[in-house]
Amino acid sequence: MFREVKQNNKPLPVLAADEITKLIVDGVFKPGDRLPNEYELAQRLGVGRSTVREAIKLLVSQNVLEIHRGNGTFVCEQTGVAADPLGLKFIPGKKKLGLDLCEIRFMIEPKIAMLAAQNATPEEVDQMQALCDEIRDQIYAGENYGEKDRELHTLIATCTRNSVIPNLIPILNEAIPLFIDITRQQVKMETIQTHQAVVDAIRARDPQAAYDAMWQHLVDNKRSIEAIPDDV
């Protein structure tokens, strides 16, 4: 049950938004959950439906909630995290941006792979392998494999058991479609091989091998970006 929202110095929609946020933090509503409808929320919060609408708009703007037209309001999977928090899509010069993102990925992703090798469950490794296989099949079929690539890197990050790292994933994931686009998928075979090497190392619970395999994956990406024309 929602606790009744009390009046204080804050506007009522902000109070309602704070109450909904607390319920999410407390685990009453989890990422991906659908919220009660507007009428039920208004009744349980002790506010009007217009207040609920304003609270929802506020939380949508903060990437806490998302509205699925015709299906209701849901808690965002990456609650409170914007898809492109650094505005990377607006930075000109895709080659330089790709190389700059490579530098960030070198700082972070090999360590992520190392932690995943220490903490991933056998079931999670099976999921990684399934994603590797799907990426391989999409590459051989000439299809865009960006979405499955993002899913794989997201899963590896989740397996670190670090509560902060998953919130970095939207930033790192922005790099994946960019790399695929500007390199025109020139690293397809290397992608298959290095992804598999990362997963094999995680399965073997070999942190150093996982670190090295992810490092090599990024080296291949960097080389392919360096090879493209400077005016990209």
From TrEMBL:
<dbReference type="InterPro" id="IPR036390">
    <property type="entry name" value="WH_DNA-bd_sf"/>
</dbReference>
<dbReference type="Pfam" id="PF00392">
    <property type="entry name" value="GntR"/>
</dbReference>
<dbReference type="InterPro" id="IPR000524">
    <property type="entry name" value="Tscrpt_reg_HTH_GntR"/>
</dbReference>
<protein>
    <submittedName>
        <fullName>FadR/GntR family transcriptional regulator</fullName>
    </submittedName>
</protein>
<keyword id="KW-0238">DNA-binding</keyword>
<dbReference type="InterPro" id="IPR011711">
    <property type="entry name" value="GntR_C"/>
</dbReference>
<feature type="domain" description="HTH gntR-type">
    <location>
        <begin position="10"/>
        <end position="78"/>
    </location>
</feature>
<keyword id="KW-0805">Transcription regulation</keyword>
<dbReference type="InterPro" id="IPR008920">
    <property type="entry name" value="TF_FadR/GntR_C"/>
</dbReference>
<dbReference type="Pfam" id="PF07729">
    <property type="entry name" value="FCD"/>
</dbReference>
<keyword id="KW-0804">Transcription</keyword>
<dbReference type="InterPro" id="IPR036388">
    <property type="entry name" value="WH-like_DNA-bd_sf"/>
</dbReference>
